Amino acid sequence: LPGLHVLAIAFALEVSVGKTNTVMALNNSNVLLPCIFTTCIGFQDLVFTWYFNSTELIYHGKIKNKATEPTLVTRNPRVNFVGSTTKKDNNISIVLNNVEFSDAGKYTCHVKNPKERNAQHNATIILTVVHKMVETDNTVTLIIVGVVGGLIGLLILFMLIKRVVLFIIKKTQDGKKECLVSSSGNDNTENGLAGSKAEQKAPPKA
């Protein structure tokens, strides 16, 4: 029994709606509700459903196996399937057409895989519906763009200053090379080495 439990965890079905679970849509527009599922051991006769506010079924589909695309069981007339399960990702995303303010709420993507002993999993998206973007939003966007542009400008200025400083340091170090050789000879003289050798090492200056 413990072994079976470990296997169940290893092959667990997972459903994801992406990095963020919030979507914003303009009134009267079409909005994509993304969803993908993953399973380590594959799937057979998989069933997926989309719910609005946990109770209203808006899309119901079935997938025989990885070699076939989903077949529709039932759907809301305003909902279209736009995913694909024969490609790299098991994409079961939908599009909600002509969004209204009453469509704002919670959309749940639910998957059941009989091949994993009827394992089930779901993920939820929060949809907000808004009017056309107001002026304040544009101002905020312009401020953000301005700040980002300013930061990029500062970064470029910093890079230029850095190059100039490195160039000056390099030139200074090149100028000091002779001094280092010369002082090295003097140090040797102080350590008891012949002064004539030190003089030979120092290049004649014009």
UniProtKB/TrEMBL annotation:
Subcellular location, record wording: Membrane
Membrane topology of the entry: Single-pass type I membrane protein
SMART domains: IG
Region (Disordered): 178-206
GO cellular component: voltage-gated sodium channel complex
A Gene Ontology BP annotation from the UniProt entry: regulation of ventricular cardiac muscle cell membrane repolarization
Keyword Disulfide bond set for record: yes
InterPro entries in the cross-refs: Ig-like_dom, Ig-like_dom_sf, Ig-like_fold, Ig_sub, Ig_V-set, Myelin_P0-rel
Biased composition (Polar residues): 181-191
Domain Ig-like per the UniProt entry, residue ranges: 2-126
MF (Gene Ontology): sodium channel regulator activity; transmembrane transporter binding
Transmembrane segments: 140-161
SUPFAM superfamilies listed in its UniProt record: Immunoglobulin (SSF48726)
Pfam family, one: V-set
Signal peptide boundaries: 1-18
Entry keyword set: Disulfide bond, Glycoprotein, Immunoglobulin domain, Membrane, Signal, Transmembrane, Transmembrane helix
Protein's UniProt name: SCN4B protein
